[in-house]
Amino acid sequence: MGAHAPGTEPLIDGAGDGRCSNARELFRSILPAFLGALAALVLAVPILYLPYQMSFDNGKHPEFSVAVAGFSGLDAAAAASAGGATPTPTLLDPTFDLTVGIKEPRKWSTACVPRGTTAVVSYRRVRLATGPVPGFCGQNENTTEVGSVMAWGTAVPVPRFAVDSLADELGRGEADVDVKLMGPARYCAICDQLVIECKARLGRGEASPPCTVRYDTPTLPDDPARPRGRQQARKELRTPQASSE
């Protein structure tokens, strides 16, 4: 009782082996597909995650600012204005200590002032000083500032109307200067020049309101790297030739 008949044992064992064999074959058949799907998932997650994260930066833009931390050489404007009318422009030797800042509200993008940028300080469209700006970047939802950016001028002729206006505004503490950060201009047919225009108040050391940013097509002389023959041929095409009789 309870014992299997001798003839039935091979049938039971054979059925078990068949089921195991079928399971192994099924596992082997689906394993490549499973591993492929897993690999695709591993690769797809970062590919899809990065655009998802970058979507939070949409609608956000970096802000550039300039502060005049200090200045000198403008006292002559007040003295010249107090001295009465003069027919010749007043010569000034102005120096400006600038602080350039980038407020980057985006996490996955970077805004930069490129290396080779020049700061141009003007008053009433009269250029007073220029100086180099070191290249730097703002990133990761932070504000980055670079100080001691010096711009200077030597024996700069300033017309009478600008001298009088500058002296009056300095006396009232309301003198503003225009600071233009001009990126490097490259010899490239498709390259644009970064131009950042700011208006900074003198005597307060405060950051300017957000500057305007644009990209201009620079006007460059002939590329010195090109053969002179090509440059001359281009000039001849632009210059009408006299007709010979």
TrEMBL record:
<feature type="transmembrane region" description="Helical">
    <location>
        <begin position="30"/>
        <end position="50"/>
    </location>
</feature>
<keyword id="KW-0472">Membrane</keyword>
<protein>
    <recommendedName>
        <fullName>Late embryogenesis abundant protein LEA-2 subgroup domain-containing protein</fullName>
    </recommendedName>
</protein>
<feature type="region of interest" description="Disordered">
    <location>
        <begin position="206"/>
        <end position="245"/>
    </location>
</feature>
<keyword id="KW-0812">Transmembrane</keyword>
<keyword id="KW-1133">Transmembrane helix</keyword>
